[in-house]
Specification:
The chain has 380 residues and is α/β, with parallel strands linked by helices. The chain is built from 9 helices and 14 strands. Residues 1-45 and 286-316 have low confidence and may be disordered. Residues 14-44 are annotated as: Disordered.
Length: 380
């Protein structure tokens, strides 16, 4: 059946419908108005401001602020360009009115730990306290101490948050830096991922909800290290794992209260699949012979997550991705107060460097080692 594509004349703005039926007529279009005569200047009719914009400005300020907040909650601003959302370019008045709603609602994708420090060190305490959503890849931060250039110290991502007192995020999204495509995975990276996350669950401040995503589940397995002495003797040390997420869920409930709503959930996803919530403990398929959960130095793996079809490789599509969601309890005090998660001398020295020199001067003096994103585990 042929289709008649002819249009019926009518006023501008009316909806034209296609007429179907058998016809031998070729498609034709009826012009709404004749073109201007040769040599004559065509003057379009005078345009008036869109009524929708006028009506928007007529809304109460409270309603407009709710609209700004809703709009910016779907906005991600990426470092280092921080391109302003188009809404702020609508007019000077809209820019002035909407800008205060940007920082408390938009997600700031700071990409790496270095960029996190770059940005947060430029903010005033008031601006820092307005941030609500940050995402980044939790890379290590290698820095030479200011009084010793013989070796540098690697500061892991969680140990840097105490530098930013007043931080009070609703959501902190962290991507595991030690697993994934083009990452040289090893036991040091497995441990860094596991204990970084556990430290944040146990003591981390500055966020209400933590979303931690890893491209592999290998770090939930026990890690065995071997060392060989000069006489050829081999020493094996096992870093075991508690059954998760059960142990972490108990940990955050002990911190915030059993009935506070605090919880830890774990989700898994096979390559190309969908996220599925883990019911029970993910790494509890192998019995713990000692019944002690996590312990070190006994030379025997405590827990293993070898599953049918996983194979022996630590990397590749056979390993499912893992997401851990940590929620602080109702009424929990989560504002960053500056207390360090680990009170060893390196953390104190880094704090002293930031207080004495500042981040810009640390970089200017070449004390910071860039490029951790190229090979994160090499700095561990």
């Amino acid at each position: 059946m042929a289709i008649d594509w002819s249009f019926q004349s009518g006023p501008i703005g009316t909806v034209h419908q296609l007429n179907t039926g058998r016809t031998s007529q070729p498609p034709t279009m009826v012009s709404q108005s004749p073109p201007p005569a040769m040599g004559r200047i065509y003057k379009p009719s005078k345009l008036t401001p869109p009524q929708s914009f006028t009506r928007f400005l007529a809304l109460p300020l409270e309603i407009r602020n709710q609209i700004y907040a809703s709009h910016f909650r779907a906005t991600t601003i990426t470092y280092p360009t921080f391109t302003p959302p188009p809404l702020l370019s609508t007019s000077h008045g809209i820019h002035t009115e909407a800008l205060p709603s940007l920082r408390p609602n938009a997600t700031y994708n700071l990409l790496t730990t270095e960029h996190l420090v770059d940005h947060l060190t430029t903010l005033t305490p008031a601006s820092l306290a307005q941030l609500r959503h940050i995402s980044l890849r939790g890379l290590p931060l290698p820095v030479y101490p200011s009084d010793d250039d013989s070796c540098y110290h690697t500061h892991l991502f969680p140990s840097l948050l105490p530098l930013f007192q007043g931080l009070r995020l609703d959501t902190l999204e962290v991507t595991d830096a030690y697993h994934g495509e083009d990452v040289c995975e090893d036991g040091w990276g497995h441990n860094a991922t596991y204990y970084d996350l556990e430290g944040m669950i146990k003591e981390g401040q500055g966020w209400k909800e933590l979303v931690f995503e890893s491209a592999s589940d290998r770090w939930l397995d026990a890690v065995v290290f071997e060392s060989r002495a000069a006489d050829g003797a081999v020493t094996r040390e096992t870093n075991g794992r508690d059954k998760q997420p059960g142990a972490w869920d108990r940990m955050v409930k002990e911190r915030d209260g059993e009935e506070s709503g605090a919880r830890v959930e774990m989700w898994s996803r096979r390559e190309g699949g969908v996220w599925r919530k883990v019911e029970g403990d993910y790494n509890a398929e192998v019995e713990d012979p000692a019944g002690q959960g996590c312990f070190e130095g006994n030379g025997e793996p405590v827990l293993s997550i070898e599953r049918q079809g996983d194979g022996e490789s630590d990397v590749g599509p056979v390993r499912p991705s893992i997401e851990v969601r940590v929620r602080r309890g109702k009424g929990a005090e989560y504002v960053q107060d500056g207390r360090s998660m680990d009170e060893h001398k390196y953390s104190r020295k880094l704090r002293e460097m930031f207080e004495k020199l500042g981040w810009r001067e640390i970089k200017a003096q070449g004390l910071f080692i860039p490029g951790a994103e190229d090979d994160p585990t090499s700095h561990l």
